[in-house]
Each structure stands twice: as C-alpha cells, then as structure tokens.
Amino acid sequence: MTDPKFTNATGAPVADNTNTMTAGPRGPALLQDIWLIEKLAHFDREVIPERRMHAKGWGAYGSFTVTHDITRYTKANIFSEIGKKTDLFMRFSTVAGERGAADAERDIRGFAVKFYTEEGNWDIVGNNTPVFFFRDPMRFPDLNHAVKRDPRTGLRSADNNWDFWSLLPEALHQVTIVMSDRGIPSNFRHMHGFGSHTFAMINAANERVWVKFHFRTQQGIVNFTDEEAAAVVANDRESSGRDLLEAIDRGDYPRWTLFIQVMTEEQARTHKHNPFDLTKVWPKGDYPLIEVGVMELNRYPDNYFAEVEQAAFSPANIVPGIGFSPDRMLQGRLFSYGDAQRYRLGVNFNHIPVNAPRCPYRSFHRDGAMRTDGNLGATTTYQPNSQGIWDNQPEYAEPALAIEGPADRFDHYADDDHYEQPGNLFRLMTPVQQQLLFANTARAMGDAAPHIKQRHIDNCTKADPAYGAGVAAALGMA
Ligand code: HEM
C-alpha cells in the first residue's frame, strides 16, 4: 500500500476510531457518526452461511507435477508432458460438524482439489474414502438430516444416524471404513484421497475411458484411536488445521502420488457390478493403479476467510479431456455445488480470486450482485450476432455416449450385492483392526435403540458372520 492512511469504505479518512460522537460528554450517540454506523453495519454482516456439509475445513496452495505419461487416455492439458507443473488450491474438511467443530472427530474427511489448468479450473471434490453411503442423490439431504443435529433436542443423535445407515444396506461399506482404524486420521497429511466417482478421460482421438482417481499419501497412514482423539480434542479443536499450517511453515511439504484406475467402455459393459455405483470399488487386481504424478502443498493462505471460506469447489468444473460418467450421485452433485455457492457466496462467486481461473478466460455471463470487474464492458452478449462471437467450438465436443432403454425411476437396489465388498474389507483387516472396528462401532452407536443396533448387527453378519458376532459382543448383545 503506497498510502497507509486509514479510511472508511469510500476512501475518506477516519478521524476517530475510538470515541463515539455524542451530544455532550455524557449524552446519547449521534446518528451522524457515520463511521460508527458503517463499522457496526459491516460487522453485522461478516458471517456468511457455512457450507451445508463439510463446513469445517482448512486449505493450502501447492502444485501438481506430471511424472508419467497418460496422454493415451486423456488430452487434458494438465497431463500433456512429463514434468509439467500446475498450480492448485486444496481444502480438507470434516463432513458432519459445523464450522466450529473439532477436527479430530470420527468422520469422513473431504479432499477437494482445484487445479488452475491452462484450459480452465478442474476440481476433484473427493473424500478420504473410495466409496460413499449410497448411490442415489435423492438420499443426500436425508443423510444430512440424519447426521446433523436432532430437530427437537439440537443434539447430535446416534439414534437418527444409525437408524438411517442401518436401513441402507449399501451403506455398510462406507460405515465399515468410517468405524475402522482409519475413521479418525491423525491429520490431513497422513491419509489418502479419492475422487470416489467414476469419471471419464477423453484422448486426442476423442476416445473415452472410465477412470477413478487415487491420491496416495507419501507421509504414510497414521490414525487416532477414539481415546487418542478424545485427548487431542480436549486440548485442541483445530488439530488438523494446525498440523497443516505447522508442516508448511517448517518446509515439510506434504505430498500425495496421484494414480488412476482405467476401465474401457468395453470392460464396463461386462464388469461384475455397475461401474458407476459409488458404493463399490473397482478391485485393484483387475484395474491396477497407474501412476500419474505428484501433488505437493507448499503455501498456507494469507487470509482464511478470503481464500478458504470463500473457496468454491464443484465436481462440475472439468476441462477438455476430463468428462463425467452416468454415476447418479455425480450427476446430482453437478447441480448441487454451483447452486449452493450461488446462495452461499453469490452469483459471481467465480470472480473471487481463489475461484477465478488463472488462464485467459472470457465467460458470457454479465451483471448480477457484486459484479466487480468491468462486466464485459460494451461487449455484445447475445448469440447469434454479426460479430461471430460466442459461437460453438465443436473441437471441444465430447464423443457421444450411447444410452439405451426407457426413462424411468429404476430401483437398482433390488437385486444387488451389498455385502461382498464390506465383507472383503473386514477379512483384509488384522485381528487387532477387527477388534478396533467392533469397539469403535459400539461406542459410536452409543444410546441408539436396541432394534437399530440389531439391524446393524444383521447387516454386518451378512457381510461376514464374524463381523456380526464381533459387533454384537462389543454391544453386549451376543
Ligand atoms: C461439500 C452436496 C456427495 C465431497 C458439499 C456442499 C454441498 C454438497 C451442497 C457444500 C458446497 C459449498 O457450499 O461450497 C452434495 C450432494 C451429494 C454430495 C448433493 C450427493 C448427491 C459428495 C460425495 C463426496 C463429496 C460423494 C466425495 C466423494 C464433498 C466435499 C465438500 C462437499 C469434499 C467440501 C468442498 C470444500 O472443501 O469446499 N457437498 N455432496 N460430496 N462435498 Fe458434497
């Protein structure tokens, strides 16, 4: 700042920031103290709505560097050559807690990355788990209402939470992960991240493959037990954010290796499960991890509100060479994030510096609340027009996706296998991990009603009788 003069919002000097103007030394305040009024009025509006889910979070800047060639799968400019480096911003979060919640809670962790590519912003808005509780977006607001506070008591409710989860057998896979030893990562650096959904990659020949994204931590996996987490929370509600800040400040930059799994359209047709089912993983034996590059976080934001609170990630933000899949959950999310951000931040939220593209861009939209750039000046914003602007760019069109069958509300729950993959996960655990799973589940179920506990035991038993028996014993319901 060349002129450090302290001014009000319209640039006039503030003469007194200490004493309110009054009628006489002991009299009432005067309405003409416009600085007091401006100061209080701005203060009254300093809080914006928190994110409906993932309200508590922390961010950092960094970069992504390509180490392996995947141009046979995608023409995305970010992957165009080995050594190519792209700036990024990422935000970690917990899911159910409010903005002031403690970090070290048993919960999923959000893992949202915004790559500022030369062809626009590409966001992967994932979690630290490869699957989710269900596979139809119709259920998402219900999840929110089940895991957030009870409408009568205002308290978190194990009864609501487990009533909902146990009535959805397809949730068992995700519930098993969250109740396992990985359910409380010690901090954000020591956990993996996943794009979770199936996405598309499109190459220069305009051929499509299906992909999943895996970010594997180079710091190793480290988790808290319930007891360790309780001790941490008692002393520090910001343990994961603090860990991220301190690691970056001391130059110990966290890194993740990005891998993809690839499935051809042909393989998708004969894959054992629906390849677009978010409650299932693609077995690594069949679809091996293919290494792509390294993500590093190396700069902590200068201002939490400006950069972290106002960050807006969306799975809808893709670039040429990356595409969506028919995953219903992904399709629902394509609407929900931008919609939430227009409400939370305003229609011009993409102009906020952390959200703005870093490449040259020219968007068609104009006007709207808080438009702070030149609003396209005199540029024509209708099409067709005689200037030939805003025309189609067919070179960016994706290959057509073959769809068949009637439009209907298909119940893909009826004849499906909800238990094989959670059972496999259970059988992969060591006896110690299995005991932790039982004990964590019993503690988390707390005072949930007995019939809800029994329903969950029955689900676990279908995955593996030993899983059901272990949870039943831990609940004292053997
Ligand atoms: C945040 C909706 C499923 C990961 C949010 C927000 C909404 C939302 C409205 C707040 C956005 C904002 O205000 O900026 C939904 C819906 C879902 C869904 C409707 C299902 C139909 C998922 C899944 C994942 C996920 C499956 C992970 C694989 C996240 C993350 C954030 C978030 C990481 C926080 C992003 C940030 O750090 O700003 N979600 N979500 N969500 N969601 Fe979802």
Topology overview:
Blueprint: H1 34-44, E1 57-66, E2 85-94, E3 109-117, E4 120-127, H2 140-147, H3 158-166, H4 172-179, E5 193-194, E6 199-202, E7 208-217, H5 226-235, H6 239-249, E8 255-264, H7 265-270, E9 290-299, H8 304-309, E10 322-323, H9 328-344, H10 420-428, H11 431-445, H12 450-463, H13 465-474
Antiparallel strand pairs: 1-2, 1-9, 2-3, 3-4, 5-7, 6-7, 6-10, 7-8, 8-9
Helix pairs in contact: 2-3, 3-12, 4-10, 11-13, 12-13
Bound molecules: protoporphyrin IX containing FE.
Protoporphyrin IX containing FE (HEM) binds at residues 51-54, 57, 91, 93, 110, 112, 125-127, 132, 137, 140, 196, 311-313, 329, 332-333, 336-337, 340-341, 344.
Structure, described:
The protein has 478 residues and is α+β, with helices and mostly antiparallel strands. The chain folds into three domains: 1-46, Cytochrome C Oxidase, Chain J (Irregular); 57-129 and 184-360, Beta Barrel (Catalase HpII,  Chain A, domain 1), CATH 2.40.180.10; 137-143 and 158-181 and 422-477, Hemocyanin, N-terminal domain (Up-down Bundle), CATH 1.20.1370.60. The protein contains 13 helices and ten strands. Strands 1, 2, 3, 4, 5, 6, 7, 8, 9 and 10 form a ten-stranded antiparallel beta sheet that branches. The structure holds protoporphyrin IX containing FE. The site of protoporphyrin IX containing FE has 27 residues, from strand 2, strand 3, strand 4 and helix 9.
